[in-house]
Please model this.
Amino acid sequence: MTAKKLYLRSFGCQMNDYDSQKIVDLMEMHGYERTEAVEEADLVVFNTCSIREKAQEKVFSDLGRIRDMRDEMGKKDMVIAVGGCVASQEGKKILTRAPYIGVVFGPQTLHRLPAMVEKFQRTGRSQVDISFPEIEKFDHLAEPKATSASAFVSIMEGCSKYCSYCVVPYTRGEEIHRPLMDVLVEVAKLASQGVKEVTLLGQNVNAYQGKMPDGEMADFAMLIEYVAEIDGIERIRYTTSHPQQFTQRLIDMYGKTNKLVNHVHLPVQSGSDRVLAAMKRGYTALEYKSIVRRLRAVRPDISIATDIIVGFPGETEEDYQATMQLIDEVGFDESFSFVYSRRPGTPAAYLEDTTPQEVKLARLKALQEKIYNHSVKISESMLGTVQRVLVLGPSRRGRGMMMARTDNNRIVNFVGDESLTDQMVNVKITVVNPHTLLGEMVA
Ligand code: 5AD
Ligand code: SF4
Model:
């Protein structure tokens, strides 16, 4: 029997990319094979994102296009399934807007997708399940499978912070933490398959509280300490963290293990205390800077990436300038910054918002330029340094060149053999361009 074909599109964040990979693994266990050609698919899955309005609207326009294609080709049996945060938020309402959808599943019910597809095919009735069954998801997924020397491991799901602008607590549910041993066993399995770099994943990883076999709880710092002891793991990353629970114990870990990369993604959202309070972030700009100062006391050249929202309701020019000042004080290396998007059902959606969109867009542009300039300076400061990098594979620059990733997420090209793929090597940076670095391998 030929395998059924699965076409999957992932929208949005790393959490979604992680879930998408799990969907692929799960469907492969149920006789599907992934295809990049949507027209040959038996099952089309959209793993959606609703963090901003644009992302959500894109889902609906793209779905409409797939439906048209299906009808034009007369492929009546092609099943269209929608998962992720749009599914979770809209639930049954999706079927009113797009009645041709066969399956609607949420981030916490993706493991039920095979059964839901089968039931839809059997009954012809659209299936909707966007519930939040406690942690069940992790117990029903395929075994972890390494595809390269770098792997993601989810340690928690959902978010209980309820920032006033954000849909995540409603779409992914409240925080659920995986037991410590489950995470460690998964990392060890991946390491035994050749994984050297692990990224611990969750909405607020540093809020982690993992049950231990003796009933005690492990915090995030302890989790890192154990992960660092697993044979084969050479590099530990995590995303995303929250300033509120960025404990001194976690900061101290940067001094204890050099497996923790010299890079952290720590969303600040705004540099104005007034806006931070309206966002319900639970810290001030000074408290954020205190974390940075203490981190830099341990790791002077740590690279700091952040998320910023520009144009939150009521953001004045003065608030915006406070954010610009914070950017200079911290010297962010990278930002995921966006104009505020009103999300129905969140508390901020009811706030008065009088700043014109053009003003917000101009603020965003200037802010992104500022961060870009910092990033260029950081690249320049890397000239002549020796970086420990993970080799990704042959470079697009041509034969004999390999590419690798530095701790601070820069791609460096160097002369090397293909057998270096998936190895950690030392590279001295010899040329700095705006977008890439060149280097040479050193002992
Ligand atoms: N509008 C704009 N950006 C948002 N984010 C979350 N909600 C919104 C919103 N309503 C951003 C935050 C968060 C990142 C994942 O997405 O910066 O850190
Ligand atoms: Fe959203 Fe805030 Fe939770 Fe991040 S911490 S997912 S911004 S509610």
About this structure: Residues 275 and 315 are 7 Å apart (CA to CA). The chain has a mean pLDDT of 94.
